[in-house]
Design a protein that fits this description.
387 residues, FAD/NAD(P)-binding domain, D-Amino Acid Oxidase, Chain A, domain 2, 2 domains, nine-stranded mixed β-sheet, eight-stranded mixed β-sheet, 20 strands, 29% strand, globular, binds flavin-adenine dinucleotide, binds (2S)-piperidine-2-carboxylic acid, FAD, EC 1.5.3.7, FAD-dep_OxRdtase, L-pipecolate oxidase activity
Amino acid sequence: MSTEGDYDCIVIGAGVQGSFSAYELAKRGRRTLLLEQFVLPHSRGSSHGQTRIIRKAYDQDYYTVMMDESYRLWSQLEEEAGVKLYRQTGLLVMGPENGTYQVIKNTLQRNGVPMVILQPEEFSKHIPHVNLADGDVALVDITAGVLYADRALRAVQGQFQKLGGIITDGQKVTDIRPGDLVTVMTSGGVYRAKNLVVTAGCWTNTLLSYIGLQLPLQVLKINVYYWKEKDPGCYSLQNRFPCFLQIECPEAEHHIYGLPSNEYPGLMKVCYHMGSETKPDERDRQMDKSDGDILKRYLTRCFPGLVPEPAVVESCLYTVTPDEHFVLDCHPVHNNIVIGAGFSGHGFKFGPLIGKLLCELSLGEVPSYDLSPFRIRRFQEHSKSAL
Ligand SMILES: Cc1cc2nc3c(=O)[nH]c(=O)nc-3n(C[C@H](O)[C@H](O)[C@H](O)COP(=O)(O)OP(=O)(O)OC[C@H]3O[C@@H](n4cnc5c(N)ncnc54)[C@H](O)[C@@H]3O)c2cc1C
Ligand SMILES: O=C(O)[C@@H]1CCCCN1
């Protein structure tokens, strides 16, 4: 039953962040084991599904700046693996002139990101089939688009294996013993390595409980809704319809976002950037669909070309920190254990860069970016450290 083997590094969790971390470590010549509790591919965490938004439109400069490199790394992977992972569509950002919209616009301008500001009177010429709400303004982040998520996971895991990396799936980590050599116990064996990277998504606190740490992470179930186009293709990627982000609207307290129809022909993905709390292993017992009513009201008003009744509903999980910024840091006591967590519903697009940064932390190098917004220390009053 026990499979023993010594590695330079073990990565726990083969979602987008763990897969890119393992790939970076293998690229740097480290003997790396990527452990995953479920048989791959699976749809129980946060990285499954066909598509994600990639964009530079952010309210903090550091995310916009980091995305510069992330785009380059995505296209490197496309070349290495010989697959298309990104389609440029632009991101339509709509919202009241002041507030978050203005902050995003300023960030884009400050960082010289190509964008188009749409004057309300010419809005419908550029974006047909959408009613811009009264008092709303709009811009398009030209760099933005769609990432093919499932395909990206396959590609990065495949490249990792080509570099000699080992993926062991269907093995749940049940205990971790820190030390100069970290020991990792799973349902199928015992493994040891000099370094450990924990990228366990919404299961992070279960794993951290083995090593005396808890983070303030909230797990939310997100309903992923697809809506039928009345006129098939009118919001499609082929017809150059963009992704969109609706900020602050009367129907909704949180953002609403959408991606052009593509993966399921005739269906457009539009979701609410909020969900209901759940436990990671009890996702399907959380049945709250009140977000669907919010979306119906919004779509009726702003997207008249969609049938305001969900056609397909899928599920996904967010792991949210109090400030919605990531956790990228070393364990406060065991510095050969690195943690990547709390990607708060916006981490996919950063995957290749997160992998690089967690690899740098793991190798004891100075990270390529200032990671102070992502430190564990910022949760001082929240984190229950049992150390
Ligand atoms: C509906 C939805 C829409 C989103 N939209 C966007 C978007 O448009 N753009 C964007 O950039 N981001 C988006 N995100 C966010 C992005 O998808 C996540 O930030 C990202 O997938 C998080 O990846 P992860 O690797 O941290 O977690 P996960 O993908 O959950 O990976 C963690 C892995 O760890 C494994 N694991 C856990 N415990 C153990 C254990 N004990 N032993 C072994 N393995 C274990 C899990 O099974 C899992 O496979 C969205 C997320 C959702 C849910
Ligand atoms: O990360 C993103 O780009 C999207 C924005 C809307 C909410 C979900 N995540």
